[in-house]
Every structure is written in C-alpha cells, then in structure tokens.
C-alpha cells in the first residue's frame, strides 16, 4: 500500500529538483526553503531565503523562477506564489516571477538580457565537477590517463555521481548515453584528445574544489544568518 504524501511533502519533492545554479545543489538540501504550504484548494506558497541580503540577483531570480515552475507543475496545485525573503531585490524578483516577466523586464534598465547563457555556463561547470567526481575513484584505482580517455559512460561502475553527471550532460545537450565517451569537452561536446586528458582533469578538479568551497561558505553564512534548519533540509547532496 502506497502512503499518500502530504501537501508539504509534494512541494518539497518538487523543490528538491530546483538547484542553486552556482553550487549545483538542491535548494532543499542547502536550507534555502524556509516554508511551504499547499491548501486543500490547491494554493501553494513557498518562501525562500538566501545566505546574504546581497546575493546576486540573477542567481536568486533563477532559483525563484525555477521553484515557481516546479511547484506549478505539481499535481493538485492550482496557483503558486514563491516569495524570496529578506533580499535587497526581493520585490523586483517576486513580482517579476509572479508576472512571468522574465529577468530583463523585471530589471528594466539594469539587465541586458535573459539568463540562458548564465545557466549554460554553470551547467558546463557542473559537468566538469561531475567528471572529477566520477573519475577520481578510477584514478585512485590505478586507471591511467590513456585508459581514462578510452572509457565510455556505460563502462564506468554505476553510482549516484555517474547518474548526476549523465543528467547534467543531458541538460546541457551533451552526449549522455552508455556508448558515449566519458571525457568530453563541455564547451564543444567533443571527446577529449589523449594529449589533453591531464589538463582536462586539472580543470575538472579545480572546478569541483571551487564549487565545494563556495558551497561550504554559503552553508556557513546561511547558518549564521538563520540558525534554524530549512524545511526539508538534508545534509546529503541531492540532484
């Protein structure tokens, strides 16, 4: 017998698919969700918070807009309100997302365009970081760079890290099937040549370390600003 999810559980499941674009981690596990409710009439309200009052408005807009879309697509939701709290651009972001106005119109006279390129840049970084996460155990087990460059996704032991990498590659429009190369350049979508593997892995490692460091800083700042845990917050990273 399958248990029926509560309204909050349904919303949290949707919000767990929304990621901080810079950190590539779910806003739920980061503690960015301060509240969510779903009424019997299907009215959903989500409240979000960020580590500082001056977090970049473009990053914040992406998260609020993605949260709006994820919640709106949830079964039983008839209307959605997502409220970013205690942020210097909260009014512009909240009103812009509610009106489906887009980033440029929400910040008329300040923004020069939409955020598709920014999202793609962060996805490329996520692919690099994910590549390091998948390849690091292989290198530790003695796989050399020549062997690494010959591996296909389907020949790598399955793991949450590999599934995460496949998903990020697919979101970026890069090859993600079993028969596709493990090492590809996220800028071009082409396999990494043998003589470029070492440099590629250095880039991947550096990118992952940078993301991990930024995640630690953001967690610490959020906890300093808001001592209580977020709704649905978990310690583990989610996809």
Strand order of the largest sheet: 3-4-5
Low-confidence stretches: none
* Largest sheet descriptor: 3 strands, mixed
Mean pLDDT: 94
Structural class: mainly alpha
CATH class of the largest domain: Alpha Beta
Tell me roughly what share of residues is in helical segments.
40-55%
**What string, H for helix and E for strand, traces the elements in order?**
HEEHEEHEHHHHHH
Q: Please name the CATH topology of the largest domain.
A: GMP Synthetase, Chain A, domain 3
Q: From the coordinates shown, what is the CATH architecture of the largest domain? A: 2-Layer Sandwich
Describe the structure concisely.
The protein has 239 residues and is mainly alpha-helical. It contains nine helices and five strands. A hairpin with a 4-residue loop joins strand 1 (19-20) and strand 2 (25-26).
């Amino acid at each position: 017998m399958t248990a029926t999810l509560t309204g909050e559980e349904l919303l949290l499941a949707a919000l767990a698919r929304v990621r901080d674009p810079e950190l590539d981690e779910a806003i739920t596990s980061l503690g960015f969700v301060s509240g969510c409710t779903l009424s019997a009439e299907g009215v959903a309200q989500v409240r979000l918070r960020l580590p500082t009052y001056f977090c970049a408005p473009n990053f914040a807009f992406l998260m609020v807009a993605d949260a709006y879309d994820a919640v709106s697509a949830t079964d039983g939701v008839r209307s959605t309100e997502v409220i970013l709290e205690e942020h210097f651009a909260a009014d512009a972001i909240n009103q812009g997302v509610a009106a489906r106005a887009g980033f440029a119109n929400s910040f008329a006279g300040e923004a020069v365009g939409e955020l598709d390129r920014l999202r793609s840049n962060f996805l490329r970084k996520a692919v690099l970081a994910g590549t390091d996460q998948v390849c690091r155990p292989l290198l530790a087990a003695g796989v050399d760079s020549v062997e690494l460059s010959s591996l296909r996704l389907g020949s790598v032991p399955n793991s949450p890290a590999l599934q995460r990498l496949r998903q990020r590659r697919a979101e970026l429009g890069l090859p993600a099937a079993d028969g596709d190369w493990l090492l590809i350049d996220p800028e071009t979508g082409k396999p990494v040549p043998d003589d470029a593997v070492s440099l590629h892995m250095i880039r991947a490692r550096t990118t992952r370390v940078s993301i991990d460091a930024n995640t630690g800083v953001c967690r610490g700042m959020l906890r300093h600003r808001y001592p209580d845990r977020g709704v649905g917050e978990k310690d583990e990273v989610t996809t």
